[in-house]
């Protein structure tokens, strides 16, 4: 029987799975999608290749797990940035600032790499459901502001945020981009 490195088998399995996800993310960020395979990820995690399949039936399953982990971390950071901020426009500003700062720190890079993955439609839908949950703070702000159609407005906000993310990802100053994004969202393209 293999040795476990935790008080229970369930905790050991959770630790092993987390190690594979972390290793997979490192490999993905270093070498792109082509570098992610069971052998490379297992070696990086310090595990036997056959162990990979105990946790992930396919590479797609690992990629989705990596994305879910990254989205959950992103969501937690956004929630922390919004904690205690006055509702309405101050929260929108905090959301924009946090999004651009996290992008500058490289925390959005995983999304860019995973966008290239050719995931099965059902797995892609799983990710989109989680991604849509990231707009929850925007929907709350839009509700506070009394926007008539918050779902439609949230999609438009997402488009402007996405443009800002692309600018920051390509080296633009995240503070200046945050200012521009906030101005665009609150006053339009002309100030």
From TrEMBL:
Keyword list, A-Z: DNA-binding
DNA-binding is among the record's keywords: yes
Molecular function in Gene Ontology: DNA-binding transcription factor activity; transcription cis-regulatory region binding
Domain of life: Bacteria
Domain HTH tetR-type: 14-74
Regions recorded as binding DNA: 37-56
PROSITE patterns recorded: HTH_TETR_2
Keyword DNA-binding set for record: yes
UniProt-listed Pfam families: TetR_N (PF00440)
Protein name: AcrR family transcriptional regulator
């Amino acid at each position: 029987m293999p040795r476990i490195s935790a008080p229970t088998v369930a905790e050991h399995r959770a630790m092993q799975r987390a190690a594979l996800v972390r290793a997979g993310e490192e490999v993905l960020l270093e070498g792109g999608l082509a570098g992610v395979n069971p052998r490379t990820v297992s070696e990086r995690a310090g595990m036997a290749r056959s162990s990979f399949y105990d946790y992930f039936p396919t590479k797609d399953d690992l990629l989705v797990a990596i994305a879910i982990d990254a989205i959950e971390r992103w969501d937690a950071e956004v929630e922390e940035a919004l904690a205690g901020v006055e509702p309405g426009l101050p929260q929108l500003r905090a959301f924009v600032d946090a999004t651009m700062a996290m992008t500058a720190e490289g925390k959005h890079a995983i999304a860019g790499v995973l966008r290239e993955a050719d995931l099965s439609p059902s797995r892609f839908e799983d990710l989109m459901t989680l991604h849509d949950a990231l707009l929850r703070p925007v929907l709350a702000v839009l509700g506070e502001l009394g926007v008539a159609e918050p779902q439609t407005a949230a999609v438009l906000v997402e488009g402007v945020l996405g443009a800002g993310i692309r600018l920051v990802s390509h080296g633009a100053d995240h503070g200046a981009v945050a200012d521009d994004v906030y101005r665009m969202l609150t006053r339009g393209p002309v100030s």
